């Protein structure tokens, strides 16, 4: 199994379920990051709200960091489900 191969998502019903759950999480994180950046941008119009705006950007950045982390976690979960026979065969080549 190769990491980040789009064919991994349809290897089995379990793979499809994992893919769907991670895509939902990825979309939610993406949406939250965008909302935080939008709110942070609007808050900068008022000097008195500068600190909350900065915190919105910090948390939005953390959500943007979570996006590739979710994808990597999904791929590692696929890998842990393993197709060990195939892996062993590739190592013997």
What does this structure look like?
The structure is a single chain. This protein is mainly α and 93 residues long. The chain has one domain (11-91). The chain has three helices and no strands. The model has no long low-confidence stretch (mean pLDDT 88). This is YrhK domain-containing protein.
Give a brief description.
The chain is mainly α.
Radius of gyration: 19 Å
Shape: elongated
Q: Helix proportion of residues, in percent?
A: over 70%
Distance between the termini: 15 Å
Q: Name the assembly state.
A: single chain
Q: Which percent band covers the strand fraction?
A: under 5%
In the predicted model, the low-confidence regions spanning at least 5 consecutive residues are: none
Any key phrases for this structure?
single chain, 93 residues, mainly alpha, 3 helices, 0% strand
What does the secondary structure layout of this molecule look like, with pairings?
Blueprint: H1 13-43, H2 50-81, H3 84-91
């Amino acid at each position: 199994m190769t990491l980040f191969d789009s064919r991994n998502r349809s290897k089995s019903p379990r793979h499809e379920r994992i893919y769907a759950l991670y895509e939902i999480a990825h979309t939610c994180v993406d949406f939250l990051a965008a909302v935080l950046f939008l709110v942070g941008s609007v808050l900068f119009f008022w000097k008195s709200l500068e600190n909350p705006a900065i915190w919105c950007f910090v948390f939005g950045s953390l959500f943007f960091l979570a996006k590739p982390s979710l994808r990597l976690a999904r791929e590692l979960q696929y890998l842990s489900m393993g197709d060990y026979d195939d892996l062993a065969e590739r190592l013997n080549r």
